[in-house]
Amino acid sequence: MFSCNKQEKVYDYDISPVNIDKVKITGGMWAELVTRNREKRAAGCGIEKC
Amino acid sequence: MALKNADLIYDEFGWDKRKAAPGHQEIEIGLVKLYIVTGEKKYLDQAKFFLDVRGPDGEEYSQSHMKVVDQREAVGHAVRAAYMYTGIADAAALTNDQEYINAINHIWEDVVHGKMYVTGGIGASGGNEGFGEPYHLPNMSAYCETCASIANVFWNHRMFLHHGESKYYDVLERTLYNALLSGVSLSGDRFFYPNVLESAGQHQRQAWFGCACCPSNISRFIPSVPGYVYARTPDEIYVNIYLDNSASIEKGDNKVELVQKTNYPWDGDIEITVNPVIEERFAIKLRIPGWARDVAIPGNLYSFIDEEDEDIQLSVNGKNIKVSDTDGYAAIKRKWKKGNIIKLVLPMPVRKLITDERVEADRNKFSVKRGPLMYCAEWADNPGEEVLSLVFDPEAEMKTEFIEDKLNGAIVIKTVASPAKKTLKNEVMLGDRQEAVLIPYHLWNRMLWGW
User: Fold this and answer.
1) H-assigned helices in B115-204
2) Residue B110 is part of a domain; what is its CATH number?
3) What's the pLDDT at A40?
4) Which long-range contacts (CB under 8 A, 24 or more apart) does B328-331 make?
5) pLDDT tens across B104-138, in order?
6) Which of B224, B242, B269 represents a domain boundary (last residue)?
């Protein structure tokens, strides 16, 4: 089995993005936004009627 | 499950099978990823088939009015379009097909020169949820679907990966912080489908929609933001988005830790500590955003009406470096050692922009931005008068203030404006100037549904 998040190479361009699991947001507005969205997704998203 | 479904599609559709294109493009992106993950070339071939089978006898709405390699203008449904341009970019990266790249280069120019809002939103018309004619960018009826903003980020990310120019990240960042982020409330559970730029109160974020693509799409997208921060080649590391983070970047046999400290987008002070496991010579390319280089946004739709007089500052280990950018990046090439510190200061004065006069809805108007954020006025912060009747003076001073106890902590802009009223003779009269508050655009519409 494979996991896209663990896949080092997701694209095949001359320039490669640094994959999401290699970057940890540590503060600021995005920390809260990302954490909140991850929590909602982990809890079955938490959105009404979803 | 992905393989089972992809195989079914492969068995059903092809040049010698059912010659049909999907009505709503997106599968192309997934098929390319599936090819990279599995190594099975049939998935790449299937993605190419779905691109190449489009046109010339279809309709503009779904971008099947001509062969994709012949397309030069952004038309039709904006989400379908931008997903397709993303898929074309992905396929081009693997096939080195210059015709694909030519097509999306032309289409990108078409968008930034005539079909993009100052918020980075795309798709002006509600009727087709898509692109209108060039310069047709109404504000109150702007569509700017949240999903189109996400697709615009996908597409511009790929354009950067192809070309290595920061102008694509300028569009990506403008979209990310404005048209896209407006799509979700601070509480994370109310959503905009269209993201208008002007409202008389008829627009409210909703918990759900009959066609509920945007809520789940933005909930999926936001956690993926860390994946847009850095990029690399064998001898370069790109820093594309500034936000507080630590990253571990593999470079051949080496590994480089970058620790970024910043309060961006509220200020432009950025400190990056570089910790390579092995001392090594390579380039760190810092994106110098267009807005910090006097480029309001790529294309000629928007321009500044004021001047920037503060300089960008850059130093390594306390030693100043002259900022000269190539393709929008300040490249620092040196032998990096553990504990080396880069400091970048991007001045963030309040700036005012005007729109190309061919955009009828923006004539005699100016917009206000600070750093990557567009600002707006809302009744909640400007009680007593109809906000749409306030007349702002572009010459008036605009002061910034950090508000800690509202908006989850944000910089607001304080200035003055005059309420306008019409007399019985239909003459416009301006009242006394009063204090006016502008907030980041993505934070508007927070009062009725809470935070």
Assistant:
1) 146-163, 166-174
2) 1.50.10.10
3) 62
4) B328/B165, B328/B166, B328/B167, B328/B169, B328/B170, B328/B287, B328/B288, B328/B289, B328/B290, B328/B293, B329/B166, B329/B238, B329/B285, B329/B286, B329/B287, B329/B288, B330/B285, B330/B286, B330/B288, B331/B236, B331/B283, B331/B284, B331/B285, B331/B286
5) 999 999 999 999 999 999 999 999 999 999 999 99
6) B224
Q: Are residues B313 and B182 in the same domain?
A: no
Domain interval for residue B22: 2-224
ipTM score assigned to the predicted complex: 0.91
Strands (E), B263-409: 269-276, 280-287, 302-304, 313-316, 319-320, 325-326, 329-336, 340-345, 350-355, 367-370, 373-377, 390-392, 399-403
Cross-chain residue pair B219–A40, CB shorter than 8 Å: yes
Q: Tens of pLDDT along B233-244?
A: 999 999 999 999
Asked if B173 and B189 sit in the same domain, the reply is yes
Residues of A with CB below 8 A from B157's CB? 17
pLDDT per residue over A1-50, tens digit each? 344 444 455 677 889 999 989 999 999 999 988 877 666 655 554 444 44
Q: Hunting for tokens 């490669």 — which residue is that? A: A16
Residue at token pair 């070339």: B41
B227/A25 Cβ within 8 A: no
Chain B partners within 8 Å of A27 (Cβ): 244
B368 in the same domain as B317:
no
B229: chain A residues, CB-CB within 8 Å: 18, 23
In a shared domain, residues B412 and B337: no
SS3 B325: strand
Number of residues that this document lists for chain A: 50
Q: Tell me the CATH number at B264.
A: 2.60.40
Please check whether residues B250 and B314 belong to one and the same domain: yes
B32 and B128 belong to one structural domain: yes
Residue at which a domain ends, from B325, B345, B365: B345
User: Do B335 and B388 belong to one domain?
Assistant: no
Give me the pLDDT at residue B324, please. Answer: 84
pLDDT for res B46: 98
Q: How many distinct structural domains can be found in chain B?
A: 3
Q: In Å, how far is A11's CA from the nearest CA of chain B?
A: 7
If asked whether residues B248 and B287 sit together in one domain, one would say yes
- Residue A25 has its nearest CB partner, among B36, B232, B244, at B244
Q: Cβ of A42 under 8 Å from any chain B Cβ?
A: no
Interface probe for B, chosen from A7, A8, A13, A14 (most Cβ of B below 10 Å), is A13
Average pLDDT, chain B: 95
What pLDDT is attached to residue A42? 59
CA angle B298, B303, B309 (to 5 degrees): 105
